[in-house]
Amino acid sequence: DPVVHQIIIHGMRNNDIRVRVLSRNTSGELTTLDKLIDYIAAEEAGSSEASDLLSDANLIGGIRRKSSYTQQKHKCKHCGDSKHTPINSPEDRKKHCKAWAKVCNNCK
C-alpha cells in the first residue's frame, strides 16, 4: 500500500498539487488509498476551475465583462482608436495618430 501511494504521488504531472499531497501524506492525513485519491481528485478539480477563472476568455465563468472604462483606457484620447504605443507620447502620436495637428469638429 505505501508503494502504491508513492507510485501515484510521483506519477502526478502537476508539481504544485504533488507538493501539497506529499505534505499531507507526510503529516499522516492521507492514510488510505481512498483518501489519497479523493484528495488528489479534489485538488485537480480545484486547480482546473481556478485556471478557468483566470483565463481571459472565461473571466469568472464569463460573468464579468470588461468594463467600458477599461476599454476606453486603452484608446487614444485624440482619435479614438486604440493607443498607438503603450506610452502614447506626443512623438508617437505625431507618427501614428490620424488626429495629430487637426482641430476637432467641436472646436472649429
Write a structural description.
The protein has five helices and no strands. Helix content is 52%, strand content 0%.
Keywords:
108 residues; mainly alpha; 5 helices
> If you compute it from the alpha carbons, what radius of gyration comes out, rounded to the nearest whole angstrom?
26 Å
Q: Given the helix and strand composition, which structural class is it? A: mainly alpha
* End-to-end distance: 84 Å
In DSSP terms, counting alpha (H) and pi (I) runs of 4 or more, how many helices?
Answer: 5
Roughly what is the average pLDDT, rounded to an integer?
Answer: 77
Biggest sheet: strands, sense, closure?
none
Shape: rod-shaped
**Helix residue percentage:** 40-55%
The string of secondary-structure elements, in order, is: HHHHH
Beta-strand content bin: under 5%
How many β strands by DSSP? 0
Low-confidence residue ranges: 60-65
Would you spell out the secondary-structure blueprint of this structure?
Elements: H1 2-10, H2 15-26, H3 33-54, H4 68-73, H5 90-96
